[in-house]
């Protein structure tokens, strides 16, 4: 059964603010007329074959899409979820119209076709009312928005497999044949409490995201387990294979990596199984699959270990040469030395990406990873760390800082590699912020490089007030943002606030960034001051430990108590 429901309308912001009855302003009518023209031009372009760069590997070398989206770049619109659509009382704060945590993928058979997904209507104490998806067939000029039936608010029920109070962790991918897959986390109740449940749900679309089949449940657990931080990746070398990964926390203090895969293009899914277990008291998180051009499957994740009363983190990969059936021993990329970000004037917490990293694959099999880290300032502030491997993940370069301004905090990086090998890393920083404690001005940037050493920053978004964001134990835009590419363009897919608008705190945007080949680069990546083998001070280690515990409490309240640790929340 196919499911298509226009829960979330794509409207101009002026129209939404002007009237609740969907009456269009003059500005909105002009925008609509412009979009219709764009659609007409896009249809003409679609008559010719196109190609471009994929979200993690090369997807072709043909002519890229050339139509830019409207100048606003707005993707999301007003939510039609009612505050009570889940049907259960809740003590948390609901942020109606707040979109967070977006992800995006581009169709390798048609680079004008993009699919984005995000959490719609975020709750302060975890998850959202539902998961939105948006499909574009004109390179982002216009979007068809709907909601997935993976929660009650999105139309889910016991009949179609989406009977959950909330949903989280949206992720989307395309197979080489153009079939799309969306992965979500469905949750009901409070994790590890009687009557609670969590499930990993995959949805499939064969028409570029216009319609979606009812979700398939890859795993569903009760109160003894909590499934978290899922991601899905289609095999770029074989359309039959798609890989879903996540961590599965247990009430007896374990957190292994779990994988489910399809070997028949989504017709069936194999039972979920553990592919890596770090042992009692330890866990993985942030698992993301990447597939190399030779078909080798890489799983990148963060490992968190309890050591002498402290939690320490490291970034790790495991490799599979047989499509995920068997896996290598873990290979460590780097330690994690992030301390987290805060409002520099008020000290208010920001819920950033923390210990979660991202990975991308280059056209010649290079692997690139990025994360937040404070080693470049010896524990003073987080920056954007970057490491690369040229031998399939067997060895890795020492981390470098890629964000240009070392004097301000950098947060929530994403990474993507174009078909020509140009690497892009998007991230937020606060170089526009002032000393005014009433605002927290934040910018979004794209750093690009052809060699991983020389970089150029480009502004993606004008400064916005991060303090307007929904609060989920810290100002929250998402654990990650989306980034993909085609031809000479990168496509950042991100959330920013509507500064000061408490009725509509955030929206999803896409802003293409054209980076011509041969562009001069402006700064050299800085080597870390704290390298492998260097002793990190006890004070620095304590700040890293506190940050890890804080982030885990944000994700799973009660985590610290379960592990015999003190909650380090402010």
Describe the overall structure.
It is built from 4 helices and 34 strands. With 570 residues, it is mostly beta strands. The protein has a 5-stranded antiparallel sheet, with no helix packed on it. It is globular.
Largest sheet: 5 strands, antiparallel
The domain tally reads 2
Q: Based on DSSP secondary structure assignment, what is the total number of beta strands?
A: 34
Distance between the termini: 47 Å
Any idea what the shape is? globular
**Helix count?**
4
What value does the Rg take, in angstroms?
Answer: 22 Å
Strand order of the largest sheet: 20-21-22-23-34
**Which residues sit in consecutive blocks of at least 5 with pLDDT less than 50?**
1-70, 529-533
Question: Mean of the pLDDT scores?
Answer: 87
Query: Beta-strand percentage?
Result: 35-45%
- Helical residue percent band: under 10%
Helix and strand composition category: mainly beta
Summarize this structure as a short list of keywords or feature phrases.
disordered N terminus; 5-stranded antiparallel beta sheet; mainly beta; 4 helices; 40% strand; single chain; globular; 8% helix; 34 strands; 570 residues; 2 domains
Summary, kept brief:
The protein is mainly beta and 570 residues long. It is built from four helices and 34 strands.
What topology emerges from the helices and strands here?
Elements: E1 2-3, H1 13-18, H2 26-45, E2 94-107, E3 110-123, E4 128-136, E5 144-147, E6 166-174, E7 180-188, E8 197-205, E9 212-213, E10 216-221, E11 225-234, E12 242-250, E13 257-262, E14 273-276, E15 283-291, E16 297-307, E17 310-320, E18 331-336, E19 350-351, E20 358-361, E21 367-373, E22 383-389, E23 400-401, E24 410-417, E25 423-429, E26 441-449, E27 454-465, E28 475-476, E29 482-486, E30 489-497, E31 506-510, E32 513-514, E33 523-524, E34 526-527, H3 538-555, H4 559-562
Parallel strand pairs: 19-28
Antiparallel strand pairs: 1-9, 2-3, 3-4, 4-5, 6-7, 7-8, 8-10, 11-12, 12-13, 13-14, 15-16, 16-17, 17-18, 20-21, 21-22, 22-23, 23-34, 24-25, 25-26, 26-27, 27-33, 29-30, 30-31, 30-32
